[in-house]
């Protein structure tokens, strides 16, 4: 295959449309709002915008439950607005990647409505319908076809009273899973994808795409301690036909036009070994995957049991991914997205004293790895987690379902549950982008659908853009450096100091250039114990303090040294 490597020097920016910018004052972000911020994105310098779902949807899961793949939800605008967005991005040399959510549809999608209509429906087999477990009456406790738990709490099965059968939903009961075993399902999805490419979109971010192939036996999974339902993931994480499906999709959708496109598969539970196969260009599956290992290190079992990150674990994990995809395949690099908390609150220090320093340090450490970096909206401003006060402040189905189950079904103390869900819940990253210090942070003149972070007076784009030493300017520089320096886009990677609990250190090499990257993940001064002392005299390429300081690191210091 031809070498397609433009995306190795590219940076992707994720827009979560609901929370980006509201043009019509209904409190929800929209396409016209994004169009109004294209100059901002151009100034930041990103190459690609990944847009979270804007399709028609009942919004049970903020648009990840789609009822029409080929129309825009009126909440966000119209197809004409999307065409304008594409034209606006292309006119500025940027690309648009759409979210592709085809593991499941909404239960209000016509395909599911037809599937549910009767056991003889021609679309019955488009979803996973099963009778009650043998010996059980439909609807009685334990009657579900297997013991799997949904990702959003409760059983992964919903009874349809009319037919007496259950359908599978790995996520909410309003997100029935499509049956990819059925070739008509696959052909319909490919046709829809071709339609979007013909319209001008430049690729897809594929939602939980390594879940689409399931073991058709749907066997019971291992029961988890103290949980009412079990873990079914062994039957669908990178399931039996996943590589076949992705290669078929490539053949049917991308072949012949892949040169200019970007594809990234979101893959919870994917291993390095699988990722090599998914992203080896010769296999023609996807360009890169979102893996989850490094965002799983600061909790135990579930995200509702947060623990403290050990930096040595983070380095071991990311270092293994760098090594594993060094020869074949390609990494994506991310700290945050709409499902993860804000990184400065998570791995940095959100206090006023260190917020900017640590946000820049985290950015520098991530972006200088080998791989394609993703910036989640607001990350470039150093936005922090949201101090939600009560459960009524939350909007996300995942956190609301968990709270209800924990307090009502399992009888846990509401105050304890509330405290435990604060650090890692998804709504942390879904508060409106802070544009200025005015009312509602300049996001809307109406009532925002979710609260605005109270720190918008200090943390906002207008202030960030005005300053040369801001987090925004730092991101801008990192993006420019990736475009300009081959050692960043193409260099190899060597992790250093694997046992140091505070200093993140690695070397990139390309031809005769060498880059040493150092990040102090602590608030105390540290000397980076790098073996080669000549580094102390190397030129500083970038840092988050005004002056260079060799290998001596101040609190949360980031420094990148280049030689010759
Ligand atoms: O997320 C997939 C996923 O497995 C998790 O990150 C999940 O959202 C949750 O955080 C587990 O604790 C994708 C989307 O990014 C997410 O927004 C959707 O809710 C989900 O798929 C279903 O479409």
From TrEMBL:
<feature type="domain" description="Glycosyl hydrolase family 13 catalytic">
    <location>
        <begin position="14"/>
        <end position="430"/>
    </location>
</feature>
<dbReference type="InterPro" id="IPR013780">
    <property type="entry name" value="Glyco_hydro_b"/>
</dbReference>
<dbReference type="InterPro" id="IPR045857">
    <property type="entry name" value="O16G_dom_2"/>
</dbReference>
<dbReference type="InterPro" id="IPR017853">
    <property type="entry name" value="GH"/>
</dbReference>
<protein>
    <submittedName>
        <fullName>Alpha-glucosidase</fullName>
    </submittedName>
</protein>
<keyword id="KW-0378">Hydrolase</keyword>
<dbReference type="Pfam" id="PF00128">
    <property type="entry name" value="Alpha-amylase"/>
</dbReference>
<dbReference type="InterPro" id="IPR006047">
    <property type="entry name" value="GH13_cat_dom"/>
</dbReference>
């Amino acid at each position: 295959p031809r070498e397609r490597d433009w995306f190795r020097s590219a940076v992707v920016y994720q827009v979560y449309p609901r929370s980006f910018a509201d043009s019509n004052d209904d409190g929800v972000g929209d396409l016209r709002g994004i169009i109004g911020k294209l100059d901002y994105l151009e100034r930041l310098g990103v190459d690609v915008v990944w847009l979270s779902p804007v399709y028609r949807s009942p919004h049970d899961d903020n648009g990840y439950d789609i009822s029409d793949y080929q129309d825009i939800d009126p909440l966000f605008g119209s197809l004409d607005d999307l065409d304008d967005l594409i034209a606006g991005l292309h006119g500025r040399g940027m690309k648009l990647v759409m979210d592709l959510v085809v593991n499941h549809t909404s239960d209000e999608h016509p395909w599911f409505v037809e599937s549910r209509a009767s056991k003889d429906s021609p679309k019955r087999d488009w979803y996973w319908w099963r009778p009650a477990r043998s010996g059980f009456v439909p609807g009685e406790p334990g009657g579900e076809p297997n013991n799997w738990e949904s990702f959003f709490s409760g059983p992964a099965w919903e009874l349809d009273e009319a037919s007496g059968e259950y359908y599978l939903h790995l996520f909410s009961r309003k997100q029935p899973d499509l049956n990819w075993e059925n070739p008509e399902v696959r052909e319909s999805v490919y046709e829809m994808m071709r339609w979007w490419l013909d319209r001008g979109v430049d690729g897809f971010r594929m939602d939980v795409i390594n879940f689409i192939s399931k073991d058709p036996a749907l066997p019971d999974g291992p029961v988890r301690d103290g949980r009412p339902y079990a873990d079914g993931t062994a039957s669908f994480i990178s399931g039996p036909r996943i590589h076949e499906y992705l290669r078929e999709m490539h053949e049917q959708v991308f072949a012949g036009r892949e040169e200019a496109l970007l594809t990234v598969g979101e893959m919870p539970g994917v291993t390095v070994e699988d990722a090599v196969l998914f992203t080896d260009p010769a296999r023609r599956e996807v360009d890169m995957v979102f893996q989850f290992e490094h965002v799983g290190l600061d909790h135990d079992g579930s995200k509702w049991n947060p623990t403290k990150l050990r930096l040595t674990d983070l380095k071991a994990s990311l270092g293994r991914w760098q090594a594993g995809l060094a020869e074949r395949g390609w990494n994506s690099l991310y700290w945050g997205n709409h499902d993860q908390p804000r990184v400065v609150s998570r791995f940095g220090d959100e206090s006023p004293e260190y917020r900017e320093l640590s946000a820049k340090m985290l950015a520098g450490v991530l972006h200088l790895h080998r791989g394609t970096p993703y910036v989640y909206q607001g990350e470039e401003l150093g936005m922090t987690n949201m101090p939600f006060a009560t459960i009524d402040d939350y909007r996300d189905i995942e956190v609301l379902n968990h709270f209800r189950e924990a307090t009502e079904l399992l009888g846990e103390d509401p105050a304890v549950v509330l405290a435990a869900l604060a650090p890692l819940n998804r709504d942390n990253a879904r508060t409106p982008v802070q544009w200025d210090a005015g009312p509602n942070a300049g996001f809307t003149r109406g009532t925002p659908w979710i609260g605005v972070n109270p720190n918008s007076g200090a943390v906002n784009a207008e202030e960030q853009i005005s300053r040369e030493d801001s987090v925004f300017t730092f991101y801008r520089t990192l993006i420019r450096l990736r475009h300009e320096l081959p050692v960043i886009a193409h260099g190899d990677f060597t992790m250093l100091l694997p046992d140091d609990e505070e200093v993140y250190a690695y070397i990139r090499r390309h031809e005769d250039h060498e880059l040493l990257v150092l990040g102090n993940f602590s608030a105390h001064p540290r000397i980076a114990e790098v073996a080669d002392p000549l580094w102390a005299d190397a030129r500083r390429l970038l840092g988050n303090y005004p002056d260079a300081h060799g290998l001596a690191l101040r609190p949360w210091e980031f420094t990148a040294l280049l030689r010759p």
